[in-house]
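Re: duplicated header lines in exported structure tokens

Our pipeline writes sequence and tokens for each protein into one text file. With two proteins the header for the second block appears twice in some exports. Here is an export where it did not happen, for reference. First protein block:
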Amino acid sequence: MHYFIVIFFASIIGTACSSTDTCLKDVAADNFSVSISKGMCFGKCPVYKGTVWGDGRVTYEGQQNVDRLGTFTGVISQEDLCALVAQVRERKLVQLDTSYIDNVPDAPVTTITITDKGQSKTLRWNMVSPEPLRELGSLMVNATFGNKKMKR
């Protein structure tokens, strides 16, 4: 029985690595990146920028109303990078409309710029995240603003 458990877990680990390798096989720092910026409002909205590159490097620049002011760098896991790539490619985000701005003057604007295989797309919204961008937005917030492992 112990032998079967070892084989089971080895196959799961092998499959996870294989799927990550497949997901990232044509992804590199010079052909894939996702950037996010959160803009100002009349109140205390967090203002920051962050970028994840195709090699897993991350930069974050806290500008106003955030705990970490200044520029920080770090990395994300291959699995997290694969999740970003999958969102961009499977949801065909470079083909979406570019603006989801509502006429609300105090709503901070979120901007995401995607670069993938020679194509670039900038998407903006200021109220609720558009449904196709919700998961990508969440992944980017976690990789940048929420990534406490980064160093100055």
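Second protein block, exported in the same file:
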Amino acid sequence: MAEPVVIWGSGAIGGTIGAYLRRAGRDVLFVDVVADHVREIAAGRLHIEGPVDQFTTGGPAVMPDAMTGQHKLILLAVKAHHTLEATRALAPFLAADGAVVSCQNGLNELVIADIVGRDRTIGAFVNFGADYQEPGRITFGGRGAVVVGELDGQTTPRIQALHQTLRLFEPAAVLSDNVFGYLWGKAGYGGILKSSALTNDTIAEYIADPARRPLIIALVREILSIAAAEGVEPLGFDGFDPRAFMRGDRVAIAASLAALAAYNSGTGKPRSGIWRDLAVRRRQTDVTAQLAPVQAAARRHRIPTPLVDRLVALIQAVEAGRREIGGELADELGDMAAAAEGVKV
């Protein structure tokens, strides 16, 4: 009999994955800090809606303080800035031979491994679009890449089993020997999403706007230069071609941006979760936490990151109510990018 899957953080990402696993017949335990959401799931009223799929499911669901037992597989799906607290909370319930899988945005595997051990940490990359709307209601806006891999790149029985489990959600899920390549690729693409949240444009509108191209190119190249210094080969997905940006190939960059605009225009999630946190939910984003390891790596290699640093500062200013979302914020960051050496429009 398959081991039960614990979903720690049952919002947009975790709730969507867990709902699919539950519908496929897997034993799933949902964990979340929102009491009303937990009650809806436990009552069988977890609604997945949107252009991809619509169905209702549910299953055992608890808040962290009601958690018991020892579990071999925990999918962690909280925001990056909650990783430390959540990992400490789940650690007592992780079996000695178990593993935590980071179904998050950012390089959170590094934080998780420091707490539960590298041998009990599995890397994962997710790029599908989903939004938590209200307790028991999640919009699944669009499919995207799902990748898993051992941190050391080995192909183990547990990673093969996890891969098969995630295929119940995303049939095209990938088992990779370079999961950090995908995570650094997402860091580069994530720069686009984060900077788009400075505006009220949709992601597709932002990417397609010629006025934003110098900023996009400079920001992505700045982030990917750090990956190169770390000895990581960033990998592409869903239209994003990191090699094009790293080479400065204008034709290939234009093709990648066109593909990304098309990918994002065909989704039920038109804006990033970061924009939603700022504009709709009026709460702190995980931008600072996501970019902290990128900045730390840059400092180790003595690589300046003026655009990343300013992007973080602008997001923090919006979070604190000192600035308002609008095109002028992206213009401000774009002015820095326009002066960056080697950027071609």
